[in-house]
Amino acid sequence: MKKFRIVILSFLFGVAPVFAQQGTGTIMGYVYGSDSITAVPFASVWIDFNGDVIGVKSDYNGKYKLSAIQPGVYNLHSSAIMEGKTQASGVNVYAESIAKHDLYLPGNDTLATVIVSGDPLIKLEHIETIPLSDIQNSPNIQDPKRMLSNRSSEVKVSPNGELIIRGSRPGDVVYFVDGVKQTNMQSVPGVSINSMSVYTGGIPAKYGDTTGGVVILNTKSYFDLYYAWKASQN
């Protein structure tokens, strides 16, 4: 029995160093740019391990550290925007040790230009804008609602003088005069309008919850009136 205990103790103490050796290692170093001097911050650094990717980002000084790596031989990769990418092959990692390896990116200061052509799939906004020159020359300058209806086939004027946009019910249209929400624009004379726009669809959320459309009026400021008067004197 005593001999049996000695055999067990010998076995345990004999294999303990073997298990202790099954530790992990570390890969660390710096990432530099194409001049081999300037550190590259926030570069991606990674290795492939049994199909999995183990990676980190370099810090502000370009330093990186990959920890808890199983002993073996790895291909070390790095990439960064505007700096390109690189690979270091055959990096040896040993248990309980640090493999120091600096990476040098080749530099790539050319960004690819992507040109997207064609019509968008979804037109987010449907807006008709009448500039000041058209307002001044319009025969309906005294009737802004009629002016809008003549500019867009989606805008109509009801018999009682209310705007109807895309078949909406009378009273559903919202008006903003110099940024102030109003229920109508009867009190705004046409000669005082500096610009006028109407949303017939895709109404931005900042104009509130309405399905009838939005009319935006910007009136002339004192300076606009002064310069117009001054120009008429010449």
From TrEMBL:
UniProt-annotated location(s): Cell outer membrane
GO CC term (a single one): cell outer membrane
Membrane topology: Multi-pass membrane protein
Entry-linked InterPro entries: Carb-bd-like_fold (IPR013784), Plug_dom (IPR012910), Plug_dom_sf (IPR037066), TonB-dep_rcpt-like (IPR039426)
Signal peptide bounds: 1-20
Residue intervals passing through the bilayer: none
Biological process terms in GO annotation: siderophore transmembrane transport
Keywords: Cell outer membrane, Membrane, Signal, Transmembrane, Transmembrane beta strand, Transport
Protein name per the record: TonB-dependent receptor plug domain-containing protein
Originating species: Putridiphycobacter roseus
